[in-house]
Amino acid sequence: MIDFYYWPTPNGWKIGMMLEECGLPYRMVPVNIGRGDQFTPEFLAISPNNRMPAIVDHDVSGEPVPVFESGAILVYLAEKTGRFMPTDAMGRKETLEWLFWQVGNIGPMAGQLSHFVNYAPAGQDYAHTRYANEYNRCLGVLECRLEGRDYILGEYSIADMATWPWVLIAKPLGDSLEAFPNVRRWRQAIKERAPVQRAVDLGSEYRRQAPPDDRERDILFNQRAR
């Protein structure tokens, strides 16, 4: 059994996708980020960066294994199951290249853009434009990569699972994907997979229904080193 520490965000969806695709037994443990659950000592012992997602794998010999950071979790689960990551040296290299591209490029750019679209005060035009342009640039990189390929590596892999949630939310972020036909085709093909649908629906009851109040904003956006 895997404990899956989760809140419904794109980073959480991609781990849910992998768990569902592999058919691994798991238990969802909701971590309410608006309430500050991510700062409890119990959670910090698992995820010292106080971010979701994280897992604890009990299906191991010896002590349970905690894993934090979504990219590391995907690699861990791929190696555990022998699925969704090539085992040859070149295939593994390409997987890690595109996985690190996601965690260092399209994910952070989309995350920052989402903040300025959904939460920032009016008048933050420079920041909004900066991240919108970077997100669009990343979509262009993905468009070129998907030319002549069904998926990022040719075969469906953790590189697709990592990237797809950040493209799923393109329209709310202000990008129609009209300029990216390969990305649109790829996005739809993955969206139709039943395990993906289950992952996106996971914890839907926890999705935000109203803007954060002042206390929640302090917890979400005003943290510093302590």
Automatic annotation (TrEMBL):
Residues 88-212 form the GST C-terminal domain. Residues 1-85 form the GST N-terminal domain. Transmembrane segments: none annotated. It comes from the Bacteria. It holds the Pfam family GST_C. Residues 201-226 are annotated as: Disordered. Residues 204-219 have a biased composition (Basic and acidic residues). Keywords: Transferase. This is Glutathione S-transferase.
